[in-house]
Amino acid sequence: MDYFAAALTGVPGVGARRLRALLTCFQSAEQVWRATEKELYASHTLPESVIQKLISYRRKTDIAKIQEDMRRVGVQCVTCFESNYPMLLGQTNNPPAVLFYKGNLPEGNRIVSIVGSRKATPYGVNVSYQLAKELAAHGVTIVSGGARGIDTEAHKGALASGGATIVVAASGLDYVYPQENRKLFKAVCEHGGAVVSEYPLGVRPCGRQFPARNRIIAGMSCGVVVVEAAERSGSLITSDFALEEGRDVFAVPGSIFSSLSKGTNRLLRKGAICITCSMEILQEYNWGITEIPQPGHADVLEPDEEWVYRFCSTGSMVTEEEILEQSGFSIPRLKLLLVKLQCKGKIREVRNGVFVAI
Amino acid sequence: MFSQVSGATTLGINGHVITVEVDISRGVTGFNIVGLAAASVREAKERVRAAIQNSGYQFPLGKVTVNLAPADLKKDGSGLDLPIAIGLLAASGQISGQCLQGRIFIGELSLQGRIRPVPGVLSMVLAARQAGFSIFIMAPSSAPEALLCEQIQVFAPQTLRELVEAMLEHAALHPEIRREEKKSVTYAVDFSEVQGQQLAKRAMEIAAAGAHNLLMIGPPGSGKTMLARRITTILPPMNREEALEVTKIYSVAGLFKAEHIIRERPFRSPHHTISMAGLTGGGSIPRPGEVTLAHYGVLFLDELPEFPRSVLEGLRQPMEDGEVHIARVNAAFTYPADFMLVAAMNPCPCGYLGDPDHACSCTDGEIRRYARKISGPLLDRIDLHVSVARPRYQELTSQKKGETSREIAARVAAARKIQRERLRKWHMQNNAQMGHRQIKETCILQEKGKKILKDIFDKLHLSARSYDRIIKVSRTIADLEGAEQIEPEHIIEAISYRSRVTRR
Fold first, then answer.
1. Which residues cross the membrane (chain B) (predicted)?
2. Among A93, A128, A132, A154, which residue is least crowded by beta carbons within 10 Å?
3. Contact in structure between A289 and A138 (CB atoms under 8 Å)
4. Out of B198, B456, B477, closest to residue A339 by CB
5. Which residues 199-218 of B are in CB contact (within 8 Å) with A?
6. Is the dihedral of CA A133, A134, A135, A136 positive or negative?
7. Which of B356, B389, B459 sits opposite A316 (nearest CB)?
8. Residue ranges of B 358-377 with Cβ closer than 8 A to chain A
9. Domains plus CATH for chain A?
10. The pTM is what?
């Protein structure tokens, strides 16, 4: 592993572009590290002020310590010139010069990213989980940002069918953001996936790193599925990156009244590919099944169940109290119906006593 | 000259008979009180001296020593003024020492010579009667409280002079007459005043029926406090022993003002700024805390996450044992604390999470931090969780009257009776007290119920630790219906009251 390359990612003023230039010019990271001031000036890769920063950074940085830290956290790294660097990402305009990762990097090109709002609605959560689960079952690796809402569900969905999934983090891999996903990220690494980042250890998550992270999400995959996005949303940044790199943009249609579907519906109007089931993505790339299966035999609902289900499907969330009042069922009867519908997967309890149809 | 009188004091919530010995010897004039007397008892000197003189008697010359026995018991409060004054008068020969035997004197003295009431009279009388005393002398306003105890005689003179004159047989003192005991229970509130909220009311009925602890989650203004205030009205009435115990606690705490025994179950709702000492009891001789004041009643904690975590942790032991143990340098105290916990909280810091009409302005992190303020072990001890939705306009203005507390209370009482009989073997009163063993023996599920429970557990991802709680609650629901067996619908209803506070 190239610890010199890992160390160079920490130089202030040296981003992915400059680091790639340095590595190209000096052949290897070790030579950059050992280059004299004169050689650095002669390479014409960095402006003068940055060269000074590089030199002072080199002086106070201990490669052995970086090596030790990475081993302790279990982080590996790969430069964009190595063969195991994710291929699709390597083909982009501005790939990270060094990619840090925990777990196993994806092989092949069957990669799709699923992105969307952090404050997802139950609809978005279901779509994300379902899409990821079905795609992963067909051997597609799911890439997402590990954020709350849509991202988390996508990772969970992929894990549910035993597929590989990649979390692209916006911080050093010793930070877990958001905290509550610690277990999820661990599971991702243990099940053939990886958590990756372009930032060295010790970099905290901070606002401007998230759009930069989105370019990696878009870059790693053949296409980006936007499940739910508001009018101004980070997911739309990801889809813009995808377009720049010539990757496909898929969008899941949503209610015209939902503010979290405004972004996706606009994408569709602008020409994004409309996605209503996972097969449509598989068909788009000719990955496996070409035939869209007929919807299976649906669960038959009893008349009372049907009544409650309809009541829940008005689009907004309904409280148990409202159903009780409108239906005139006894409390035990209503509770029974609600539990049955939940078990049949027809409705979901979003909050204590608040239901919504799926 | 020497005399001996009996008085009484309280330590914790129990009374103790104190023997007051007075000795007057020749020597330099002085007045000493020995026998572990607290400051309020030592101050008796001045009150007693003034009261005796202002009542027209002689304060003896010479060296006066008052000993309070047993000497190792810490004595607090001003109730020993009267026995000390009487002892002084007897020792100085102004009254006969003969008429002091078998009597207990309780009361504080004013400088003028009036006898004033002291807190904790009921405990003192109960303890003294146990020790064989049956005649009590105290302030008039303490008499009704003392007479809650049966088979005793109470004399209540207004002043020290009136008492001494009676002892000198210059005047007659008549024993106080017992009043007719109040049998009925009256509450100022009623469940029929709550509009709508059918589900919450149902949950309260189940909680009351099985003495389960209850947590209400709902946005501000949804009526959580209103509902909680009414839960005591549907609990079964206390029997006489329970009522007497509650009255005793209130008497010691100085909160007993009425003349009748407390028949209504206590409802305590401390503010969330309460300290640990305020909740469990505190002080060098601990005063009863809120958990003890809620004995046999309801402890309502509104805005549960706002309570300091350490204070809430202090609730765990009393909730488990039904009593609270407080250790102090001089003694360890055990106070009863068999209460039902009713707690209320908002779903998130702003209060509007999941509200159909308001948008919640909290971030996920804030919501988790809010829920994390309540410790898991405390949540584990709350069997029923129910969400309370804000009633809509139609519900508030509807003319439909809800059920009255009396109707609900009848069902609750019937369910409690079934439970008592079933759990008699283990000396338990209600389903909430059941441990794993009792659940295994009394809550046998049929095959069908087991299968349903398993299906739901798998589908809804329930945790194993909620299992016992669900079974306990379904047992109570079955008892409310008078059903012998736990049927699937009971289980399903119980499952809907499971905990859904996400703390991760």
1. none
2. A93
3. yes
4. B456
5. 199, 202, 217
6. positive
7. B356
8. 364-365, 368
9. 3-103 (no CATH), 111-285 (3.40.50.450), 303-357 (1.10.10)
10. 0.78
